[in-house]
Amino acid sequence: MINDNRFIEIKDELHKITEELVDSAFEQFFIDRITSAKERLNDEKMNILVVGEFSRGKSTFINAILGKQILPSSVNPTTATINILEGSNLNNMNVYYRDRDSETIDLPNEKLKDFLDNFVTVKNEEVAQIERIKLNVSGNLEEWNCVLVDTPGVNDLDEAREEVTFKYLSQADVCIVLLDSQQPLSESERRFIKDKVLKNDINRLLFVINRIDDIDEMPDGNNYKRIREHIIGIIKETLPELEYPKVFGVSARETLKARHKNIDSEWEKSFKSFESEAIKFVSNNAVAGKMPQHIKRLKNICNDIQAYLKGELLKLECSNEELDFLFEKLATEANILTINLKDIMLIIEKEKIELQKEITSVSKTEFDKLKVKLVNQANTINSEEKLNMLKTDLSSGIRSITEKLSKIIYDHKEKLQEKFYNNLNKILKENNLETSLITTSNNQVNLEVKDIDELTYTSNNNSKKEKNEEADVRSLALGGVCGLVGAALFGGPVGVIIAVVGANYIDDVLKESKSGDEAKNHARNFMKNIIVQIDAIISKSQAKAGEIAAHEINEISCEYKEVLNNRLIMIEKSLGNKEKDLKNRKENLDNSKVEIKEKIENCNGIVLKLQEFEGELKNEFNI
Known about the structure:
This protein is an alpha/beta fold. It folds into three domains: 1-44 and 286-317 and 590-623, no CATH class; 47-263, Rossmann fold; 319-585. Helices cover 64% and strands 10% of the residues. It contains 19 helices and eleven strands. The strands form two sheets. Strands 4-3-5-2-6-1-7-8-9 form a nine-stranded mixed β-sheet, sandwiched between helices. Strands 10-11 form a two-stranded antiparallel sheet. Helix 8 links the parallel strand 8 and strand 9. It is globular, with a radius of gyration of 29 Å. The two termini are 26 Å apart. InterPro entries: Dynamin_N, G_DYNAMIN_dom, Mitofusin_fam, P-loop_NTPase.
Protein backbone atom coordinates (compact mmCIF):
# COMPACT_ATOMS: atom_id res chain seq x y z
CA MET A 1 0.00 0.00 0.00
CA ILE A 2 1.15 3.53 -0.76
CA ASN A 3 2.25 5.37 2.36
CA ASP A 4 0.68 8.62 3.56
CA ASN A 5 -2.89 7.53 2.88
CA ARG A 6 -4.22 9.41 5.88
CA PHE A 7 -7.78 8.88 4.66
CA ILE A 8 -7.57 5.13 5.29
CA GLU A 9 -5.67 5.62 8.56
CA ILE A 10 -8.32 7.98 9.92
CA LYS A 11 -11.15 5.71 8.78
CA ASP A 12 -9.51 2.87 10.70
CA GLU A 13 -9.16 5.07 13.81
CA LEU A 14 -12.82 6.05 13.68
CA HIS A 15 -13.82 2.41 13.21
CA LYS A 16 -11.99 1.56 16.44
CA ILE A 17 -13.81 4.38 18.23
CA THR A 18 -17.19 3.05 17.05
CA GLU A 19 -16.32 -0.33 18.54
CA GLU A 20 -15.51 1.35 21.86
CA LEU A 21 -18.79 3.24 21.70
CA VAL A 22 -20.81 0.03 21.32
CA ASP A 23 -19.61 -1.08 24.77
CA SER A 24 -21.29 1.96 26.32
CA ALA A 25 -24.58 1.57 24.44
CA PHE A 26 -26.65 -1.11 26.14
CA GLU A 27 -29.84 0.07 24.37
CA GLN A 28 -30.47 -1.38 20.89
CA PHE A 29 -31.57 2.05 19.69
CA PHE A 30 -28.05 3.41 20.18
CA ILE A 31 -26.40 0.27 18.80
CA ASP A 32 -28.44 0.70 15.61
CA ARG A 33 -27.29 4.31 15.30
CA ILE A 34 -23.66 3.32 15.82
CA THR A 35 -23.99 0.55 13.23
CA SER A 36 -25.48 3.01 10.74
CA ALA A 37 -22.65 5.49 11.39
CA LYS A 38 -20.11 2.73 10.90
CA GLU A 39 -21.69 1.69 7.59
CA ARG A 40 -21.63 5.29 6.33
CA LEU A 41 -17.99 5.57 7.27
CA ASN A 42 -17.19 2.26 5.62
CA ASP A 43 -18.86 3.38 2.36
CA GLU A 44 -16.85 6.61 2.25
CA LYS A 45 -14.24 6.64 -0.53
CA MET A 46 -11.84 9.11 -2.11
CA ASN A 47 -12.98 10.48 -5.48
CA ILE A 48 -10.66 11.20 -8.42
CA LEU A 49 -11.87 12.85 -11.64
CA VAL A 50 -9.78 12.64 -14.83
CA VAL A 51 -10.38 15.16 -17.64
CA GLY A 52 -8.51 15.85 -20.84
CA GLU A 53 -8.81 16.44 -24.55
CA PHE A 54 -8.79 13.36 -26.74
CA SER A 55 -5.41 11.97 -27.85
CA ARG A 56 -3.87 12.88 -24.47
CA GLY A 57 -3.62 9.17 -23.60
CA LYS A 58 -6.30 9.33 -20.91
CA SER A 59 -7.42 5.69 -21.17
CA THR A 60 -3.81 4.47 -21.17
CA PHE A 61 -3.11 6.69 -18.15
CA ILE A 62 -6.04 5.17 -16.23
CA ASN A 63 -5.01 1.66 -17.27
CA ALA A 64 -1.53 2.40 -15.90
CA ILE A 65 -3.09 3.37 -12.55
CA LEU A 66 -5.16 0.18 -12.60
CA GLY A 67 -2.04 -1.81 -13.49
CA LYS A 68 -3.79 -3.67 -16.29
CA GLN A 69 -5.38 -3.13 -19.68
CA ILE A 70 -9.04 -2.47 -18.97
CA LEU A 71 -10.25 0.62 -20.83
CA PRO A 72 -10.06 0.65 -24.65
CA SER A 73 -7.47 3.10 -25.97
CA SER A 74 -6.71 4.53 -29.41
CA VAL A 75 -5.12 7.54 -31.08
CA ASN A 76 -8.63 8.46 -32.24
CA PRO A 77 -11.44 9.54 -29.91
CA THR A 78 -12.87 6.39 -28.32
CA THR A 79 -14.39 6.79 -24.87
CA ALA A 80 -17.93 8.12 -25.25
CA THR A 81 -19.41 7.49 -21.80
CA ILE A 82 -18.71 8.64 -18.27
CA ASN A 83 -17.02 5.65 -16.65
CA ILE A 84 -16.89 5.37 -12.88
CA LEU A 85 -14.26 2.86 -11.78
CA GLU A 86 -14.52 1.66 -8.19
CA GLY A 87 -12.20 -0.66 -6.32
CA SER A 88 -14.17 -3.82 -5.64
CA ASN A 89 -13.98 -7.61 -5.91
CA LEU A 90 -17.42 -7.81 -7.57
CA ASN A 91 -15.92 -7.80 -11.09
CA ASN A 92 -19.06 -6.51 -12.79
CA MET A 93 -20.43 -3.29 -14.24
CA ASN A 94 -23.62 -1.31 -13.75
CA VAL A 95 -24.97 0.40 -16.87
CA TYR A 96 -27.21 3.40 -16.13
CA TYR A 97 -29.41 4.49 -19.04
CA ARG A 98 -31.02 7.87 -19.51
CA ASP A 99 -34.53 6.61 -20.23
CA ARG A 100 -34.74 3.06 -18.87
CA ASP A 101 -33.76 0.95 -15.88
CA SER A 102 -30.13 0.16 -15.20
CA GLU A 103 -28.63 -3.31 -15.65
CA THR A 104 -25.76 -5.23 -14.06
CA ILE A 105 -23.42 -7.21 -16.30
CA ASP A 106 -20.62 -9.56 -15.22
CA LEU A 107 -17.21 -8.72 -16.62
CA PRO A 108 -15.24 -11.44 -18.45
CA ASN A 109 -11.96 -12.66 -17.00
CA GLU A 110 -10.22 -12.39 -20.38
CA LYS A 111 -10.23 -9.81 -23.19
CA LEU A 112 -11.95 -7.26 -20.96
CA LYS A 113 -10.74 -4.35 -23.11
CA ASP A 114 -12.41 -5.84 -26.20
CA PHE A 115 -15.59 -6.48 -24.23
CA LEU A 116 -15.79 -2.88 -23.01
CA ASP A 117 -14.99 -1.60 -26.49
CA ASN A 118 -18.59 -2.43 -27.44
CA PHE A 119 -20.02 -0.51 -24.49
CA VAL A 120 -18.02 2.62 -23.69
CA THR A 121 -16.76 3.71 -27.12
CA VAL A 122 -18.26 5.18 -30.25
CA LYS A 123 -18.62 1.62 -31.58
CA ASN A 124 -21.73 1.31 -29.45
CA GLU A 125 -24.61 2.71 -31.51
CA GLU A 126 -26.68 3.23 -28.33
CA VAL A 127 -23.93 5.02 -26.44
CA ALA A 128 -25.95 8.26 -26.38
CA GLN A 129 -28.60 6.48 -24.31
CA ILE A 130 -26.08 5.66 -21.58
CA GLU A 131 -25.80 8.19 -18.76
CA ARG A 132 -22.84 6.50 -17.07
CA ILE A 133 -21.17 3.13 -16.53
CA LYS A 134 -19.83 1.95 -13.16
CA LEU A 135 -17.03 -0.60 -13.35
CA ASN A 136 -16.30 -2.59 -10.20
CA VAL A 137 -12.71 -3.78 -10.56
CA SER A 138 -10.10 -5.18 -8.19
CA GLY A 139 -6.58 -3.79 -7.92
CA ASN A 140 -5.04 -0.49 -6.88
CA LEU A 141 -8.32 1.41 -6.53
CA GLU A 142 -9.57 -1.16 -4.04
CA GLU A 143 -6.32 -0.92 -2.08
CA TRP A 144 -6.40 2.89 -2.07
CA ASN A 145 -10.13 3.08 -1.21
CA CYS A 146 -10.71 5.15 -4.36
CA VAL A 147 -13.35 5.86 -6.98
CA LEU A 148 -12.05 7.16 -10.32
CA VAL A 149 -14.28 8.98 -12.81
CA ASP A 150 -13.16 8.75 -16.44
CA THR A 151 -14.71 11.40 -18.69
CA PRO A 152 -15.04 11.37 -22.48
CA GLY A 153 -12.12 13.04 -24.25
CA VAL A 154 -13.10 16.01 -26.41
CA ASN A 155 -11.18 18.18 -28.85
CA ASP A 156 -12.23 21.27 -26.95
CA LEU A 157 -12.65 21.21 -23.17
CA ASP A 158 -14.99 24.16 -23.51
CA GLU A 159 -17.37 21.68 -25.10
CA ALA A 160 -17.11 19.15 -22.30
CA ARG A 161 -20.42 17.97 -20.82
CA GLU A 162 -21.52 20.43 -18.21
CA GLU A 163 -22.62 17.55 -15.98
CA VAL A 164 -18.94 16.53 -15.80
CA THR A 165 -17.71 20.00 -14.96
CA PHE A 166 -20.33 20.81 -12.37
CA LYS A 167 -21.48 17.52 -10.89
CA TYR A 168 -18.41 15.32 -10.86
CA LEU A 169 -15.85 18.06 -10.27
CA SER A 170 -17.79 19.28 -7.23
CA GLN A 171 -17.79 15.73 -5.85
CA ALA A 172 -14.12 15.04 -6.59
CA ASP A 173 -11.38 15.20 -3.98
CA VAL A 174 -8.94 15.83 -6.83
CA CYS A 175 -9.35 16.60 -10.53
CA ILE A 176 -6.47 15.36 -12.70
CA VAL A 177 -6.09 17.47 -15.85
CA LEU A 178 -4.15 15.33 -18.32
CA LEU A 179 -1.88 17.27 -20.70
CA ASP A 180 0.32 16.26 -23.62
CA SER A 181 4.09 16.81 -23.52
CA GLN A 182 4.13 18.12 -27.08
CA GLN A 183 0.98 20.25 -26.83
CA PRO A 184 0.90 21.40 -23.21
CA LEU A 185 -2.00 23.61 -22.13
CA SER A 186 -3.82 24.33 -25.36
CA GLU A 187 -6.03 27.39 -25.61
CA SER A 188 -9.16 25.39 -24.76
CA GLU A 189 -7.39 23.79 -21.77
CA ARG A 190 -6.53 27.25 -20.47
CA ARG A 191 -10.10 28.40 -20.95
CA PHE A 192 -11.31 25.29 -19.15
CA ILE A 193 -9.31 25.90 -15.97
CA LYS A 194 -9.98 29.63 -16.06
CA ASP A 195 -13.67 29.76 -16.92
CA LYS A 196 -15.25 26.38 -16.31
CA VAL A 197 -13.68 25.32 -13.02
CA LEU A 198 -15.62 26.76 -10.09
CA LYS A 199 -13.63 28.85 -7.64
CA ASN A 200 -14.11 26.32 -4.84
CA ASP A 201 -12.64 23.55 -7.02
CA ILE A 202 -9.39 25.28 -8.01
CA ASN A 203 -7.32 23.93 -5.14
CA ARG A 204 -8.28 20.37 -6.10
CA LEU A 205 -6.61 20.54 -9.52
CA LEU A 206 -3.61 18.34 -10.27
CA PHE A 207 -1.88 18.62 -13.66
CA VAL A 208 -0.19 15.60 -15.27
CA ILE A 209 1.95 15.91 -18.40
CA ASN A 210 1.72 12.59 -20.22
CA ARG A 211 4.04 11.11 -22.87
CA ILE A 212 7.23 12.49 -21.39
CA ASP A 213 8.98 9.59 -23.17
CA ASP A 214 8.30 11.41 -26.46
CA ILE A 215 10.56 14.31 -25.44
CA ASP A 216 13.07 12.71 -23.04
CA GLU A 217 14.79 9.34 -22.89
CA MET A 218 14.44 9.17 -19.11
CA PRO A 219 12.11 10.67 -16.48
CA ASP A 220 12.98 14.09 -15.11
CA GLY A 221 15.00 15.07 -18.21
CA ASN A 222 15.87 18.63 -19.16
CA ASN A 223 13.07 18.92 -21.74
CA TYR A 224 10.50 17.87 -19.17
CA LYS A 225 11.87 20.31 -16.59
CA ARG A 226 11.66 23.15 -19.10
CA ILE A 227 8.08 22.29 -20.14
CA ARG A 228 7.01 21.86 -16.51
CA GLU A 229 8.27 25.34 -15.58
CA HIS A 230 6.54 26.76 -18.66
CA ILE A 231 3.23 25.14 -17.66
CA ILE A 232 3.52 26.28 -14.05
CA GLY A 233 3.99 29.83 -15.31
CA ILE A 234 0.87 29.63 -17.48
CA ILE A 235 -1.20 28.13 -14.65
CA LYS A 236 -0.14 30.88 -12.24
CA GLU A 237 -1.02 33.48 -14.83
CA THR A 238 -4.39 31.85 -15.55
CA LEU A 239 -5.20 31.01 -11.93
CA PRO A 240 -3.43 33.55 -9.70
CA GLU A 241 -5.36 32.13 -6.71
CA LEU A 242 -3.45 28.86 -7.12
CA GLU A 243 -0.13 29.74 -5.50
CA TYR A 244 1.57 26.34 -5.79
CA PRO A 245 0.26 24.37 -8.80
CA LYS A 246 0.85 20.64 -8.61
CA VAL A 247 2.39 19.50 -11.90
CA PHE A 248 3.80 16.03 -12.63
CA GLY A 249 5.25 14.28 -15.68
CA VAL A 250 4.68 10.62 -16.56
CA SER A 251 4.77 8.08 -19.36
CA ALA A 252 1.55 6.11 -19.01
CA ARG A 253 2.40 3.98 -22.02
CA GLU A 254 5.80 2.81 -20.71
CA THR A 255 4.39 2.35 -17.20
CA LEU A 256 1.53 0.16 -18.42
CA LYS A 257 3.94 -1.88 -20.49
CA ALA A 258 6.25 -2.43 -17.51
CA ARG A 259 3.39 -3.34 -15.17
CA HIS A 260 1.79 -5.66 -17.68
CA LYS A 261 5.06 -7.55 -18.23
CA ASN A 262 6.15 -7.16 -14.58
CA ILE A 263 9.54 -5.74 -15.50
CA ASP A 264 11.72 -3.03 -13.94
CA SER A 265 11.46 0.36 -15.58
CA GLU A 266 12.55 3.86 -14.65
CA TRP A 267 9.29 5.12 -16.12
CA GLU A 268 7.30 2.81 -13.84
CA LYS A 269 9.30 3.97 -10.82
CA SER A 270 8.64 7.58 -11.80
CA PHE A 271 4.92 6.84 -12.21
CA LYS A 272 4.86 5.17 -8.80
CA SER A 273 6.40 8.29 -7.28
CA PHE A 274 3.67 10.36 -8.93
CA GLU A 275 1.00 7.98 -7.54
CA SER A 276 2.40 8.37 -4.05
CA GLU A 277 2.20 12.17 -4.24
CA ALA A 278 -1.22 12.05 -5.88
CA ILE A 279 -2.67 9.72 -3.24
CA LYS A 280 -1.26 11.92 -0.50
CA PHE A 281 -2.90 14.95 -2.15
CA VAL A 282 -6.30 13.30 -2.70
CA SER A 283 -6.15 11.71 0.76
CA ASN A 284 -5.61 15.06 2.48
CA ASN A 285 -8.44 16.64 0.49
CA ALA A 286 -10.75 13.73 1.27
CA VAL A 287 -9.96 13.92 4.99
CA ALA A 288 -10.65 17.66 5.08
CA GLY A 289 -13.86 17.34 3.06
CA LYS A 290 -15.37 14.14 4.43
CA MET A 291 -14.10 13.20 7.88
CA PRO A 292 -15.46 16.14 9.97
CA GLN A 293 -19.06 15.03 9.36
CA HIS A 294 -18.27 11.49 10.55
CA ILE A 295 -16.56 12.78 13.68
CA LYS A 296 -19.52 15.07 14.36
CA ARG A 297 -21.94 12.14 13.91
CA LEU A 298 -20.04 10.00 16.42
CA LYS A 299 -19.84 12.90 18.90
CA ASN A 300 -23.59 13.40 18.60
CA ILE A 301 -24.30 9.73 19.27
CA CYS A 302 -21.88 9.72 22.18
CA ASN A 303 -23.46 12.82 23.71
CA ASP A 304 -26.93 11.33 23.29
CA ILE A 305 -25.82 8.15 25.05
CA GLN A 306 -24.38 10.25 27.89
CA ALA A 307 -27.60 12.27 28.19
CA TYR A 308 -29.66 9.08 28.31
CA LEU A 309 -27.37 7.44 30.89
CA LYS A 310 -27.41 10.54 33.09
CA GLY A 311 -31.18 10.50 32.92
CA GLU A 312 -31.18 6.87 34.03
CA LEU A 313 -28.80 7.72 36.87
CA LEU A 314 -31.03 10.60 37.96
CA LYS A 315 -33.99 8.29 38.20
CA LEU A 316 -32.03 6.02 40.51
CA GLU A 317 -30.85 8.86 42.73
CA CYS A 318 -34.02 10.91 43.18
CA SER A 319 -36.94 10.31 45.56
CA ASN A 320 -40.27 8.81 44.52
CA GLU A 321 -41.80 12.32 44.39
CA GLU A 322 -38.95 13.58 42.26
CA LEU A 323 -39.26 10.56 40.00
CA ASP A 324 -42.94 11.27 39.43
CA PHE A 325 -42.09 14.89 38.67
CA LEU A 326 -39.40 13.82 36.19
CA PHE A 327 -41.76 11.46 34.35
CA GLU A 328 -44.34 14.21 34.17
CA LYS A 329 -41.78 16.56 32.60
CA LEU A 330 -40.71 13.88 30.13
CA ALA A 331 -44.32 13.22 29.09
CA THR A 332 -44.86 16.96 28.51
CA GLU A 333 -41.67 17.16 26.51
CA ALA A 334 -42.70 14.16 24.37
CA ASN A 335 -46.01 15.87 23.48
CA ILE A 336 -44.24 19.08 22.51
CA LEU A 337 -41.71 17.23 20.37
CA THR A 338 -44.49 15.34 18.59
CA ILE A 339 -46.30 18.60 17.79
CA ASN A 340 -43.02 20.18 16.66
CA LEU A 341 -42.35 17.29 14.28
CA LYS A 342 -45.75 17.87 12.66
CA ASP A 343 -45.28 21.64 12.47
CA ILE A 344 -41.90 21.32 10.83
CA MET A 345 -43.49 19.91 7.65
CA LEU A 346 -45.41 23.18 7.18
CA ILE A 347 -42.22 25.20 7.71
CA ILE A 348 -40.31 23.06 5.21
CA GLU A 349 -42.94 23.42 2.47
CA LYS A 350 -43.04 27.18 2.97
CA GLU A 351 -39.22 27.43 2.79
CA LYS A 352 -39.11 25.31 -0.37
CA ILE A 353 -41.60 27.58 -2.11
CA GLU A 354 -39.71 30.74 -1.10
CA LEU A 355 -36.38 29.34 -2.26
CA GLN A 356 -37.88 28.05 -5.50
CA LYS A 357 -39.28 31.51 -6.30
CA GLU A 358 -35.91 33.14 -5.60
CA ILE A 359 -34.00 30.65 -7.78
CA THR A 360 -36.48 31.09 -10.62
CA SER A 361 -36.42 34.88 -10.47
CA VAL A 362 -32.65 35.30 -10.20
CA SER A 363 -31.98 32.66 -12.85
CA LYS A 364 -34.25 34.36 -15.39
CA THR A 365 -32.88 37.83 -14.67
CA GLU A 366 -29.23 36.80 -14.86
CA PHE A 367 -29.57 34.59 -17.94
CA ASP A 368 -31.55 37.30 -19.75
CA LYS A 369 -28.64 39.67 -19.09
CA LEU A 370 -26.17 37.08 -20.37
CA LYS A 371 -28.29 36.47 -23.45
CA VAL A 372 -28.33 40.17 -24.37
CA LYS A 373 -24.57 40.41 -23.86
CA LEU A 374 -23.85 37.34 -26.02
CA VAL A 375 -26.18 38.40 -28.81
CA ASN A 376 -24.56 41.83 -28.99
CA GLN A 377 -21.15 40.21 -28.92
CA ALA A 378 -22.04 37.66 -31.61
CA ASN A 379 -23.04 40.47 -33.95
CA THR A 380 -19.45 41.72 -34.00
CA ILE A 381 -17.67 38.38 -34.55
CA ASN A 382 -15.38 38.52 -37.56
CA SER A 383 -12.43 36.44 -36.39
CA GLU A 384 -11.61 33.26 -34.50
CA GLU A 385 -10.18 35.38 -31.70
CA LYS A 386 -13.54 37.08 -31.14
CA LEU A 387 -15.29 33.72 -31.30
CA ASN A 388 -13.00 32.39 -28.59
CA MET A 389 -13.70 35.52 -26.56
CA LEU A 390 -17.42 34.80 -26.83
CA LYS A 391 -16.78 31.22 -25.67
CA THR A 392 -14.88 32.53 -22.68
CA ASP A 393 -17.62 35.04 -21.80
CA LEU A 394 -20.25 32.33 -22.14
CA SER A 395 -18.35 29.94 -19.86
CA SER A 396 -17.49 32.58 -17.26
CA GLY A 397 -21.08 33.88 -17.43
CA ILE A 398 -22.46 30.45 -16.70
CA ARG A 399 -19.96 29.96 -13.88
CA SER A 400 -20.81 33.35 -12.39
CA ILE A 401 -24.56 32.67 -12.45
CA THR A 402 -24.03 29.20 -10.99
CA GLU A 403 -22.02 30.62 -8.11
CA LYS A 404 -24.57 33.42 -7.57
CA LEU A 405 -27.44 30.93 -7.39
CA SER A 406 -25.38 28.74 -5.10
CA LYS A 407 -24.73 31.61 -2.71
CA ILE A 408 -28.45 32.42 -2.63
CA ILE A 409 -29.20 28.80 -1.77
CA TYR A 410 -26.48 28.69 0.87
CA ASP A 411 -27.66 31.92 2.53
CA HIS A 412 -31.23 30.61 2.58
CA LYS A 413 -30.07 27.35 4.14
CA GLU A 414 -28.03 29.21 6.72
CA LYS A 415 -31.04 31.30 7.81
CA LEU A 416 -33.22 28.20 7.99
CA GLN A 417 -30.59 26.36 10.01
CA GLU A 418 -30.45 29.26 12.46
CA LYS A 419 -34.25 29.23 12.71
CA PHE A 420 -34.26 25.51 13.50
CA TYR A 421 -31.39 25.95 15.94
CA ASN A 422 -33.17 28.75 17.84
CA ASN A 423 -36.39 26.74 17.88
CA LEU A 424 -34.63 23.70 19.33
CA ASN A 425 -32.93 25.87 21.94
CA LYS A 426 -36.33 27.28 22.89
CA ILE A 427 -37.75 23.78 23.33
CA LEU A 428 -34.81 22.81 25.51
CA LYS A 429 -35.14 25.81 27.81
CA GLU A 430 -38.92 25.84 28.06
CA ASN A 431 -39.13 22.12 28.79
CA ASN A 432 -35.89 21.75 30.74
CA LEU A 433 -34.48 19.07 28.46
CA GLU A 434 -31.20 17.23 29.08
CA THR A 435 -31.23 17.94 32.76
CA SER A 436 -29.25 17.31 35.88
CA LEU A 437 -31.47 16.92 38.92
CA ILE A 438 -30.43 18.99 41.93
CA THR A 439 -32.20 18.71 45.28
CA THR A 440 -31.97 21.94 47.23
CA SER A 441 -31.99 22.32 51.04
CA ASN A 442 -35.79 22.69 51.10
CA ASN A 443 -36.28 19.71 48.74
CA GLN A 444 -37.35 21.93 45.81
CA VAL A 445 -36.44 20.33 42.49
CA ASN A 446 -34.40 22.47 40.10
CA LEU A 447 -33.38 21.48 36.58
CA GLU A 448 -30.10 22.60 35.04
CA VAL A 449 -30.24 22.92 31.25
CA LYS A 450 -27.26 21.66 29.26
CA ASP A 451 -25.87 23.55 26.29
CA ILE A 452 -27.54 22.30 23.13
CA ASP A 453 -24.24 22.19 21.25
CA GLU A 454 -23.02 19.52 23.67
CA LEU A 455 -25.95 17.34 22.62
CA THR A 456 -26.80 16.78 19.01
CA TYR A 457 -26.86 19.99 17.02
CA THR A 458 -24.39 22.57 15.82
CA SER A 459 -24.85 25.89 14.06
CA ASN A 460 -22.50 28.18 12.20
CA ASN A 461 -23.86 31.07 14.25
CA ASN A 462 -23.60 29.88 17.85
CA SER A 463 -20.24 31.32 18.86
CA LYS A 464 -17.84 34.10 17.99
CA LYS A 465 -15.19 31.55 17.12
CA GLU A 466 -17.43 29.88 14.58
CA LYS A 467 -18.43 33.27 13.19
CA ASN A 468 -14.76 34.00 12.51
CA GLU A 469 -14.50 30.68 10.67
CA GLU A 470 -17.66 31.31 8.66
CA ALA A 471 -15.78 32.11 5.44
CA ASP A 472 -14.06 28.72 5.51
CA VAL A 473 -17.31 26.92 6.24
CA ARG A 474 -19.09 28.80 3.48
CA SER A 475 -16.37 27.99 0.95
CA LEU A 476 -16.57 24.30 1.75
CA ALA A 477 -20.35 24.21 1.68
CA LEU A 478 -20.65 26.14 -1.57
CA GLY A 479 -18.64 23.51 -3.43
CA GLY A 480 -21.39 20.94 -3.04
CA VAL A 481 -24.19 23.41 -3.73
CA CYS A 482 -22.50 24.63 -6.92
CA GLY A 483 -22.23 21.06 -8.13
CA LEU A 484 -25.93 20.45 -7.56
CA VAL A 485 -27.03 23.68 -9.26
CA GLY A 486 -24.67 23.26 -12.20
CA ALA A 487 -25.55 19.63 -12.82
CA ALA A 488 -29.29 20.36 -12.55
CA LEU A 489 -29.26 23.33 -14.91
CA PHE A 490 -26.59 22.37 -17.42
CA GLY A 491 -26.28 18.59 -17.30
CA GLY A 492 -28.03 16.11 -19.54
CA PRO A 493 -29.62 17.19 -22.83
CA VAL A 494 -28.85 20.91 -22.65
CA GLY A 495 -25.23 20.99 -23.84
CA VAL A 496 -24.80 24.75 -23.62
CA ILE A 497 -21.36 25.16 -25.13
CA ILE A 498 -21.79 22.60 -27.90
CA ALA A 499 -25.18 23.90 -28.93
CA VAL A 500 -24.41 27.60 -28.75
CA VAL A 501 -20.89 27.76 -30.08
CA GLY A 502 -20.42 24.81 -32.40
CA ALA A 503 -17.17 24.21 -34.22
CA ASN A 504 -18.99 24.50 -37.57
CA TYR A 505 -19.44 28.21 -36.98
CA ILE A 506 -15.89 28.86 -38.10
CA ASP A 507 -16.53 27.03 -41.35
CA ASP A 508 -19.90 28.63 -41.97
CA VAL A 509 -19.20 32.22 -41.04
CA LEU A 510 -15.52 33.04 -41.00
CA LYS A 511 -14.42 31.62 -44.37
CA GLU A 512 -13.26 34.40 -46.63
CA SER A 513 -15.10 32.83 -49.56
CA LYS A 514 -18.43 33.68 -47.99
CA SER A 515 -20.12 36.80 -49.25
CA GLY A 516 -20.96 39.59 -46.83
CA ASP A 517 -24.72 38.95 -47.00
CA GLU A 518 -24.23 35.23 -46.55
CA ALA A 519 -21.97 35.75 -43.53
CA LYS A 520 -24.52 38.13 -41.97
CA ASN A 521 -27.25 35.54 -42.53
CA HIS A 522 -25.15 32.90 -40.75
CA ALA A 523 -24.46 35.37 -37.94
CA ARG A 524 -28.18 36.04 -37.54
CA ASN A 525 -28.86 32.31 -37.34
CA PHE A 526 -26.06 31.98 -34.83
CA MET A 527 -27.59 34.68 -32.62
CA LYS A 528 -30.99 33.00 -32.88
CA ASN A 529 -29.32 29.81 -31.70
CA ILE A 530 -27.89 31.63 -28.69
CA ILE A 531 -31.33 32.97 -27.81
CA VAL A 532 -32.94 29.54 -28.18
CA GLN A 533 -30.33 27.83 -25.99
CA ILE A 534 -30.30 30.46 -23.24
CA ASP A 535 -34.10 30.40 -23.19
CA ALA A 536 -33.88 26.62 -22.85
CA ILE A 537 -31.63 27.07 -19.82
CA ILE A 538 -34.07 29.59 -18.30
CA SER A 539 -36.91 27.16 -18.88
CA LYS A 540 -34.90 24.33 -17.37
CA SER A 541 -33.95 26.43 -14.35
CA GLN A 542 -37.63 27.14 -13.70
CA ALA A 543 -38.45 23.44 -14.02
CA LYS A 544 -35.54 22.39 -11.82
CA ALA A 545 -35.85 25.17 -9.21
CA GLY A 546 -38.32 23.20 -7.12
CA GLU A 547 -36.13 20.08 -7.26
CA ILE A 548 -33.04 22.04 -6.19
CA ALA A 549 -34.91 23.83 -3.38
CA ALA A 550 -36.39 20.56 -2.11
CA HIS A 551 -32.98 18.85 -2.11
CA GLU A 552 -31.28 21.61 -0.13
CA ILE A 553 -34.11 22.29 2.34
CA ASN A 554 -34.62 18.57 2.96
CA GLU A 555 -30.94 18.22 3.79
CA ILE A 556 -31.29 20.59 6.75
CA SER A 557 -34.76 19.49 7.82
CA CYS A 558 -33.69 15.83 7.90
CA GLU A 559 -30.91 16.69 10.34
CA TYR A 560 -33.29 18.67 12.52
CA LYS A 561 -35.98 15.97 12.44
CA GLU A 562 -33.36 13.37 13.29
CA VAL A 563 -32.43 15.33 16.42
CA LEU A 564 -36.08 15.58 17.51
CA ASN A 565 -36.83 11.95 16.67
CA ASN A 566 -33.79 10.68 18.54
CA ARG A 567 -34.76 12.69 21.62
CA LEU A 568 -38.39 11.51 21.35
CA ILE A 569 -37.32 7.85 21.16
CA MET A 570 -35.13 8.30 24.23
CA ILE A 571 -38.01 9.87 26.18
CA GLU A 572 -40.45 7.16 25.13
CA LYS A 573 -38.00 4.52 26.29
CA SER A 574 -37.71 6.28 29.66
CA LEU A 575 -41.47 6.53 29.99
CA GLY A 576 -41.85 2.89 29.02
CA ASN A 577 -39.37 1.88 31.72
CA LYS A 578 -41.26 3.60 34.55
CA GLU A 579 -42.27 0.39 36.35
CA LYS A 580 -38.80 -1.06 35.89
CA ASP A 581 -37.25 2.13 37.29
CA LEU A 582 -39.43 1.95 40.41
CA LYS A 583 -38.43 -1.67 40.89
CA ASN A 584 -34.74 -0.85 40.42
CA ARG A 585 -34.98 1.58 43.31
CA LYS A 586 -35.56 -1.39 45.60
CA GLU A 587 -33.34 -4.00 43.94
CA ASN A 588 -29.70 -3.78 42.90
CA LEU A 589 -29.72 0.01 43.15
CA ASP A 590 -26.03 0.33 43.91
CA ASN A 591 -24.96 -2.10 41.18
CA SER A 592 -27.06 -0.27 38.58
CA LYS A 593 -25.60 3.06 39.58
CA VAL A 594 -22.04 1.75 39.35
CA GLU A 595 -22.66 0.26 35.90
CA ILE A 596 -24.22 3.45 34.57
CA LYS A 597 -21.45 5.63 36.01
CA GLU A 598 -18.84 3.43 34.34
CA LYS A 599 -20.58 3.77 31.00
CA ILE A 600 -20.81 7.54 31.44
CA GLU A 601 -17.07 7.66 32.13
CA ASN A 602 -16.45 5.56 29.01
CA CYS A 603 -18.50 8.03 26.97
CA ASN A 604 -16.59 10.94 28.50
CA GLY A 605 -13.35 9.29 27.44
CA ILE A 606 -14.61 8.73 23.88
CA VAL A 607 -15.84 12.32 23.58
CA LEU A 608 -12.44 13.60 24.74
CA LYS A 609 -10.72 11.27 22.27
CA LEU A 610 -12.94 12.54 19.42
CA GLN A 611 -12.32 16.16 20.41
CA GLU A 612 -8.55 15.61 20.49
CA PHE A 613 -8.75 13.79 17.16
CA GLU A 614 -10.81 16.64 15.71
CA GLY A 615 -8.23 19.17 16.95
CA GLU A 616 -5.37 17.18 15.41
CA LEU A 617 -7.16 17.09 12.05
CA LYS A 618 -7.81 20.83 12.17
CA ASN A 619 -4.11 21.48 12.74
CA GLU A 620 -2.93 18.93 10.19
CA PHE A 621 -5.38 19.69 7.39
CA ASN A 622 -6.32 23.29 8.20
CA ILE A 623 -10.04 22.51 8.53
